[in-house]
Amino acid sequence: MSLSAHTNAKNTNARNLYKKLGYKEIGIVPCAFNGIDGVNLVLLEKKIGN
């Protein structure tokens, strides 16, 4: 089982926090987010349980 999250690639504070919490960056996806073009979302995942 795993948890997933995403954040803007420019948000280094969030990226560092997720890393400290055990999340791994699994990819970056360019997209339009909330109507804003040119956003790069970092996809994060953390394995939990067995």
Which SSEs are present, and which pair or pack?
Blueprint: E1 2-8, H1 12-20, E2 24-33, E3 36-47
Antiparallel strand pairs: 1-3, 2-3
Structure in words:
By secondary structure, the chain is an alpha+beta fold. The protein contains 1 helix and 3 strands. The chain has one helix at residues 12-20; strands at 2-8, 24-33, 36-47. A 3-stranded antiparallel sheet has the order 1-3-2, covered by helices on one side. A hairpin with a 2-residue loop joins strand 2 (24-33) and strand 3 (36-47). The longest helix has 9 residues, at 12-20. The radius of gyration is 12 Å and the shape is elongated. 8% of the residues are buried.
How many β-strand stretches? 3
Total of DSSP H or I helical runs spanning 4+ residues: 1
Strand arrangement within the widest β-sheet reads: 1-3-2
Poorly predicted spans? none
Principal-axes shape call: elongated
Strand portion: over 45%
What is the N-to-C order of secondary-structure elements (H for helix, E for strand)?
A: EHEE
| Amount of helix | 10-25%
The helix-and-strand class reads alpha+beta
Task: State mean pLDDT (0 to 100 scale).
Answer: 95
Whole-angstrom Rg: 12 Å
| Largest sheet report | 3 strands, antiparallel
Distance N to C terminus:
7 Å
